[in-house]
Amino acid sequence: MIGVHNSITNSNRIGGNAFGLFVKQQRRWTSPPIKPEEIDHFGELLKEHKYNAKKHVLPHGSYLINLANLDNAKNEQAYSAFLDELQRCEQLGIGHYNFHPGSTLGLSKPDAIKRLAANINAAIKATKFVKIVLENMAGHGNLIGSTWEDLADVIALVENKSRVGVCIDTCHTFAAGYDIRTQELYDKMWSEFDKIIGLKYLSAIHLNDSKAPLGSNRDLHQNIGLGFLGLESFRILMNTHHVEGLPMVLETPNNNDEAVWGREIKLLESLIGKSADDPDFIAQREALWKKGAQERKDMEQKTKKKDDKKQSKLKVGKKRKVETDDEEE
Q1: pTM surpassing 0.90?
Q2: What InterPro entries does the entry give (predicted)?
Q3: 140 is known as an active-site residue
């Protein structure tokens, strides 16, 4: 279905009270402007279904945008697309805009972060109210944002700090090595986040289980309760005071069946007020864990093979170095 207004009807149909959307085609640099009648229709549906665009709507930025790009022409192209999306948000009355911080692409991380922050500062000056929300990443390759320190370094360079925030993706957090599977570990993660970034910058949550193990640096989303995070992680999160009122958006697989998201919304809402020893919760947790067992086992085997291959290459490399050193002697 085409048109930003369809995001509202789609969310309402599955029982959502917050939602994400793309404000233009996410894999194209440019798209036609939003028509005035489309803006009006979006606003009418927000009122009809009682969504607050400043609080409950979390657009996702285009996957093409990399504001840290060293190439000046590509950086300018990325900035133009970024600014266009922010302006579309403001046309629709949307208060938050979530995006991936980008990749260093050969730059040192401090220099890449400076370029990223410079673009954020320029975009804030060119817009009126939309808050720019940095999403934490899984840590693959040269991506910026897989550590709290990365995000803190970006925020430190943003001049108007009332216009910047952070979106925590549960899958990315786990893949980056932050364990949140028990209350103790979960509290430790937030304590570190608060110390390094500050809870005042927490602006949104992406709710995803993880198909890959802890610290895998793999951005592989799984349905709630089936992955390596398990349902307990989400029970803890759904009973956390400092996330109350934040937009929470599911990005789990749906296999072309939107009803999956509806069921997951109901599941997550049912966790509010539940204790870890609640019999109904335990039954749900164990049923979902069992359902995802084979996929987790397969992923563990793939991960082990990859790690073994990497270790084998390291050993070969060390052996060759020793042989080379012996020859030189």
Answers
A1: yes
A2: AP_endonuc_2, AP_endonuc_F2_Zn_BS, Xyl_isomerase-like_sf, Xyl_isomerase-like_TIM-brl
A3: no
